[in-house]
Here is the input.
Amino acid sequence: TALEKANASSRFLLDLAATSEKLGWHALNLGRCFDHCVYDELIEQYDVHTRIVNSCNSYCTHAYLITKEGAKILQKYTWPMLTTEDHIRTSLSDAGKLRYLSVSPRLFRQNRDPDTSIHKEHEGECVPKWLPTFERGCRSQRVIFLDNGDPVVRM
Here is the structure.
């Protein structure tokens, strides 16, 4: 029934959330997009279909789990806003300030209008190697953090 499916989905998400203590993540992206999946580092094979990975460009923040500590870290580093929230999260992860992992394959997908989408040429979880942006590689634009914690956009 629909109720049984909803209960199973809720249990699955609660079980995923419980991995935060074991794996030490602050945020877990459940619907990443535009990522360079060839660089994924397997953190845990959660079940036969689901992996938890440390990924290169875990963009799209429409579905994620976050711990209280992760929320405090994001609150500290997201003001003033200098770039998109996606870039801030991946930058904090690169800088070792936020443990930000992804579920693969993604569990949620954005329902985007193709006429207004930022990435019209690709809407998938992983960037195809033929796409010109793939050549820029992993971590092509990031925010860096000065010793005093101030964020600075690096292109």
